[in-house]
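Run log // design_07
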C-alpha cells in the first residue's frame, strides 16, 4: 500500500471490490483497496484519513473495529481523527448485522455506518419520485411492482411504503419472487403491521398478475444481470399487452454503460447500480442527501429548547453529528416525503431566487395534514407499533394510530403545524415552494406549415402566460405523438425552463412504431428521457376528460375559434379521489398555425 493514500477501502468479496472500483473512478487519487488490516498496520495508520470497511465477506466485524481502535491510539502524529465508515448490505440477499461501539469508547475515531441498499433506495426514489408514474391529483392510484426480493428489493419496498402516501388510501405493492410465500412470511415476521401501510401481494416470478389497478412503477432487482435484463424486457412487453401501459422500469445491474445513446433506449427501462448510486464521495464523506433531514432535526432541537427542556438530557436532542442512527432515520423519512406532499397539491420545490414568499392556503394545509398523518402512521406501523387506547412504549401501542378524521383537534393541529413548516425548512436549504402552472397542449391534427412561425406563436403564448402567472412554475403536459406537440414541448423546455409531463394513451413501443421515421422516433425518445412525469390515460375518452378537468390553461392547436367558443366554466370537480373539490374556470388559448392567429378565451 502506498503511504500517501488517505482513503482506504477494507473488505473482501464482490461488494468490496465494486465499492473500491467505483471510488477509484470518482476520485483520481488517494484511494487504496486492501483485504486485511495487516496492510494498514504495515503502512502506518497515521497516513489514513478515511477508512471504509465493507462488512460483507468479513467474518468478525467487531474484532475489526476493535483492532482499528488499537491502531488509532498510534495516530499521535495525525492532526485529525480517523473517519471510519462501515458499509453494510450484501446485495445478493444477506444483510450483515452490525453493532457499532459508542464513538466515545474508541480513541480518535469518528464512527458512522451506512447501508448500501437502504441509501440506494432513498437516492433512487429521490431522483425518480413515485408520483412520476401517475397523476395523483387526478386520482390515479400508485401501484408499484418489485421483481426480486433480496436485500435491495426489500429496501426499495420499505422506502416505497414510506413515500407512497398522498391522502388517498393505501398504495398497492406487488412483489414477484421465486418463493413468494417464504418471502411473504419473512417480511411480515419482520414488519407485522405492514398490511396497515400498503396492499401487499406476493406472486411467483414466472406468474402474471392482471389487475384493475395499472402498474405505475417497476423495480427489477434480480441478482444476475442477464436474467434481470431479460426479465425487465419481458415485463415491459407484458405490461404493454395486458395493461396497455408503459410505466418506468428501473433495472438494477451490477455494472452498465451509462453513456448509451437515446437511439438505443426502449423509452421505458432505466438501469441503475446500487453501488454506483451510493459509493460516491459526496454521499459517503460529505453527507449529501441528508441536508433537509439535518435541518428538520435542528428545528426539533429548537422546539426542545423552547420548552425549557435540556438538550443534553434528551437522546433525540443531540446535534446531528452525534445523533443515534434511529433518530436520524426518522428525520430522513420526514425529509424524503416532502416532494410527495408538494406533488399532492400541484406544487414543487425550486431554488429560492426564482420564487417569492409562499404560504399554503387553509385547504392545502388541511389536505397536507392528512397526508402527513398517513406518513407518520406508516412510519410507526413499520417500526412495529399498533393502535392502543393508551400509549405503551414497551408494547408499542399508540392511541393516535387512527384515521385523520378520528384525531382530536389538538393532534390535528400538530400535523398542521408540521406541514406549515415546510416552506421554512426549505428556505434553510435556499429553496422555496412554488405552485405549478399546468399548461396542456391539444391538437386537432393541424400541422404547422412553417416551423419558425409556429415556434414564434408558441413562444408568444408561453411568454404571456409566464408574465400573467409570475408566481407559478410552468409545466407543459402533452402527448408527444404529434410533431406540433413535440415542437411545443421543445420550446417550453429550452426557452422557458418548463417541466414536461407526457400523456400516454398508447404504449411507448406502439407509438414508436406509429411514428415510423427514425428522426421522429429520436425526437420522441429524447423528450421522453427528460420528462418529469408520464401519465397513462386508458383511451382518448379519458384523455379528453383529463384535458377538461386538469390543466390550468389549455393550448389548442388547430383552426380559428368558432363564434360560440369563449370562456368555459367547469362544474365542481374532485381534485383527486376523496380529495377536496374546487371550481375550475378553464382557460384556453387557440393557436392557428395556418393563419398565424392566436385567440385568448380569458381575460389577460
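design_07 sequence
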Amino acid at each position: 500500500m502506498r503511504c500517501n493514500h488517505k482513503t482506504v477501502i477494507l473488505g473482501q468479496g464482490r461488494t468490496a471490490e465494486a465499492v473500491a472500483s467505483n471510488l477509484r473512478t470518482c476520485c483520481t487519487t488517494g484511494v487504496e483497496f486492501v483485504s486485511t488490516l495487516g496492510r494498514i498496520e504495515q503502512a502506518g495508520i497515521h497516513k489514513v484519513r478515511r477508512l471504509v470497511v465493507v462488512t460483507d465477506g468479513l467474518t468478525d466485524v467487531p474484532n475489526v473495529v476493535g483492532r482499528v481502535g488499537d491502531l488509532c491510539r498510534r495516530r499521535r502524529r495525525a492532526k485529525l481523527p480517523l473517519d471510519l465508515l462501515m458499509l453494510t448490505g450484501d446485495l445478493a440477499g444477506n444483510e450483515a448485522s452490525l453493532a457499532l461501539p459508542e464513538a466515545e469508547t474508541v480513541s480518535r475515531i469518528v464512527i458512522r455506518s451506512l447501508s448500501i441498499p437502504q441509501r440506494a433506495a432513498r437516492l433512487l426514489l429521490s431522483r425518480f419520485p413515485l408520483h412520476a408514474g401517475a397523476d395523483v391529483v387526478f386520482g390515479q392510484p400508485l401501484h408499484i411492482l418489485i421483481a426480486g426480493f433480496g436485500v435491495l428489493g426489500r429496501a426499495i419496498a420499505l422506502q416505497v411504503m414510506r413515500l407512497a402516501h398522498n391522502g388517498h388510501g393505501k398504495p398497492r405493492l406487488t412483489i414477484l419472487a421465486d418463493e413468494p410465500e417464504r418471502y411473504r412470511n419473512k417480511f411480515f415476521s419482520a414488519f407485522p403491521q405492514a398490511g396497515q401501510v400498503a396492499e401487499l401481494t406476493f406472486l411467483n416470478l414466472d406468474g402474471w398478475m392482471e389487475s384493475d389497478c395499472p402498474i405505475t412503477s417497476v423495480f427489477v432487482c434480480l441478482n444476475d444481470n442477464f436474467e434481470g435484463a431479460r426479465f425487465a424486457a419481458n415485463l415491459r412487453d407484458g405490461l404493454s399487452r395486458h395493461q396497455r401501459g408503459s410505466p418506468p422500469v428501473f433495472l438494477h445491474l451490477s455494472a452498465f454503460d451509462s453513456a448509451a445513446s437515446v437511439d438505443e433506449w426502449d423509452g421505458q427501462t432505466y438501469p441503475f447500480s446500487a453501488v454506483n448510486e451510493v459509493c460516491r464521495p459526496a454521499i459517503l464523506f460529505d453527507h449529501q442527501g441528508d441536508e433537509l433531514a439535518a435541518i428538520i432535526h435542528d428545528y426539533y432541537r429548537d422546539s426542545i429548547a423552547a420548552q425549557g427542556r435540556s438538550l443534553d438530557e434528551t437522546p433525540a436532542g443531540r446535534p446531528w453529528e452525534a445523533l443515534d442512527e434511529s433518530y436520524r432515520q426518522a428525520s430522513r423519512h420526514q425529509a424524503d416525503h416532502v416532494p410527495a406532499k408538494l406533488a399532492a397539491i400541484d406544487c414543487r420545490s425550486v431554488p429560492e431566487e426564482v420564487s417569492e414568499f409562499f404560504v399554503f392556503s387553509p385547504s392545502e394545509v388541511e389536505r397536507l395534514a392528512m397526508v402527513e398523518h398517513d406518513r407518520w402512521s406508516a412510519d410507526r406501523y413499520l417500526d412495529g407499533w399498533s393502535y392502543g387506547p393508551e400509549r405503551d412504549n414497551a408494547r408499542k401501542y399508540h392511541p393516535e394510530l387512527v384515521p385523520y378524521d378520528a384525531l382530536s383537534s389538538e393532534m390535528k393541529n400538530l400535523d398542521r403545524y408540521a406541514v406549515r413548516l415546510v416552506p421554512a425548512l426549505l428556505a434553510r436549504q435556499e429553496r422555496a415552494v412554488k405552485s405549478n402552472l399546468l399548461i396542456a397542449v391539444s391538437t386537432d391534427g393541424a400541422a404547422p406549415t412553417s416551423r419558425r412561425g409556429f415556434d414564434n406563436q408558441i413562444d408568444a403564448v408561453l411568454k404571456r402566460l409566464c408574465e400573467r402567472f409570475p408566481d407559478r412554475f410552468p409545466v407543459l403536459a402533452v402527448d408527444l405523438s404529434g410533431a406540433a406537440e413535440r415542437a411545443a414541448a421543445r420550446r417550453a423546455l429550452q426557452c422557458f425552463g418548463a417541466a414536461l409531463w407526457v400523456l400516454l394513451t398508447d404504449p411507448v413501443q406502439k407509438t414508436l412504431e406509429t411514428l415510423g421515421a427514425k428522426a421522429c422516433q429520436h425526437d420522441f425518445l429524447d423528450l421522453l428521457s427528460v420528462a418529469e412525469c408520464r401519465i397513462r390515460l386508458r383511451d382518448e375518452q379519458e384523455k379528453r376528460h383529463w384535458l377538461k378537468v386538469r390543466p390550468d390553461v389549455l393550448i389548442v392547436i388547430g383552426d380559428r375559434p368558432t363564434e360560440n367558443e369563449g370562456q368555459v366554466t367547469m362544474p365542481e370537480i374532485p381534485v383527486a379521489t376523496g380529495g377536496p373539490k374546487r371550481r375550475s374556470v378553464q382557460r384556453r388559448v387557440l393557436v392557428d398555425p395556418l393563419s398565424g392567429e392566436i385567440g385568448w378565451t380569458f381575460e389577460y
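The radius of gyration is 26 Å.
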